[in-house]
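Async update (no meeting this week)

Hi team, since we skipped the sync, here's where things stand on the single-chain job. The sequence we agreed to prioritize is pasted below, unchanged from the tracker. I ran it this morning and attached the output directly underneath so nobody has to dig for it. Comments welcome in thread, and please keep replies under the output.
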Amino acid sequence: MELQALRYASMVSTMTFEEAVEIFCKYKQKNGYIDFSLEDAQFEIEGFVEMDIAEGGFAEDVKTILVSHNFSIELTTSVLWLNARNLDITCIKIQPYNDNGKILVDIQQIIPLPEAEHYQIKVKRKLEEKRETRKNNSKDYSKYQFNNMTLGKGRLALEMIKYHFEQHEDKPVKALIADFDSVTHSQPIIETLAIAKNNAQATGRARYFLSEDDILVANDGVQYVVSSQWGKDNIEDMIEIIEEKFGYQVEKIQSTGSAEGRKVNFENFEIIQLEDSTIIVKQNGISITAKPALRELCKRFNIILENSNGNLKNTRSLGNEVINAIEKKI
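Output:
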């Protein structure tokens, strides 16, 4: 039933108002109204909907009403799912009763429930906003500076882990891998080369950096590779661990798809904090490398440069504290 309705809805959605008028006119002529004209058809349609229909606004949104004496769980589940994805489907249950020769009809709207319709509309809008946010976030092409290299997310993770292995050659491999256990990831961040290759052959997709130059040779003699599957959230977790726990320095030099959160001005500096916590610093209206400027400003506001672990604070932490200090001063 719902599939049939969707076919009708898709058919109507491609119609122009002129086509709808012509179809209705032919329908009336075939059913006894031989002299029914296109003007009559347009007048009757506009009278039915109680408005003048401009062609530009015709069938932009199609409302679907399903009417039945009963609705299965499968059908109602499908309708709820479709409505959550911006369709407009109403389910009305009609049940006739015979009362001593009189036909009584019980009519109930079951989707959306009348008493919950306003709430469901709000929930629907919220879901749409979340989906839009995820779409925007998926278009994030940020670049990072690490060890004088400009890197995307995947390559940044690879270079940070390679550097970490190099800095702790005597540390057991299991301990090195465990350093990144708190990073949320869909697969092991570090895997043996043999297992990664087997998985790639089985699935047809290489989810690890498998080039010869990217392979890690640990002190246990086993070859390891790093996951190439990185997004905005888990790379931020990775950077936080690298900077806070081990004191390595990462600079985010480009961020797209994130709106401004806070912005302050101090002398000839402008410090901007994006909603994803990225810090942008401008001097005399020109973007500059954030970290050195923030460290100088920290000295001006007596902000400690080291975190609780004794490592230098990252750009996001410095920027947040500088903005707080400037806002207090203002």
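Quick observations from my side:
Residues 273 and 279 are 5 Å apart (CA to CA).
The first strand starts at residue 63 and ends at 68.
Reply here if anything looks off.
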